[in-house]
């Protein structure tokens, strides 16, 4: 049955009584090209995955193929020699074939958010609903990747951003005082080393403390071990379960299950999931990975504003060049965060740029005032 049949899609569009307009044909051809690009995207991503994720991506590809058929049915002979798909879908497909990473899923999530089917009477309500669900599916797949990257990636992004902003502000501030380029270079290198070590130490302590806190707050199997020897009339298991958030009635029932008064179809020895800490710690990340990422990326970020002085730059030209280079790097780090968070890369990049150059401008003014006062 054709996907344009009203019986197949309740509330869907009626088959057009007259030939479609040229505008409709152009729009349908564009939709068909985009659906083909999205199907290829999910197929390419599926080839790089295994197990459940592969099956999910293939399911998305199959859904996009059904959408393709809808537009083919409407277009008939006009379904040939299609225009190029949207530019961002072309970019997505190219990146998927090369990288196949979480960044692509985050971009695909944004593409699914922008589906026009809900406002287009030529698309069926089922297709619009499919696209809304696709967004949630891709969001969930991207979330898996984000969680795996969250610890080290967070440290890397924060390290690079802090290195860019702090060392640019330091160098620009020193430049505002009017000191020589040699002093600025030494100051920048000192800021790079001190900042990288400080960031690495701070990330190590932060992540290690967070992991230890998770270990300390995770329930143990003490209730299972102690249950056989507890006083039935003064059952303190109730207190344990109430402290974990159960109501008084539920806590008492759970305690009596532990003591064998009620039958329980659960296996108490498995109530403590040994995989849970590994999954939780994976989200937090490794303390050593966070420290290493923070050190390396802070150093790389802090090196960028120093480069003009390493190659003999002086005065205002060196400050302008350093600020320009850092501005481009801030746009890149902001865009990367935007991609992973499913937000607009441009907005995140511009936000990072405004923060970084704003801090540099403030320190330059303060340096100028300080230099004038000392002089």
UniProtKB/TrEMBL annotation:
Matches recorded under CDD domains: Ferritin_CCC1_N, Nodulin-21_like_2
Location(s), subcellular: Endomembrane system
UniProt keyword annotations, A-Z: Membrane, Transmembrane, Transmembrane helix
Bilayer-spanning residue ranges: 168-201, 295-312, 318-341, 353-374
Residue ranges, annotated region (Disordered): 1-25
Domain of life from the UniProt record: Bacteria
Pfam families in UniProt: VIT1
Low complexity biased stretches: 1-11
Membrane topology: Multi-pass membrane protein
This protein's name: VIT1/CCC1 family predicted Fe2+/Mn2+ transporter
Species the sequence originates in: Nesterenkonia lutea
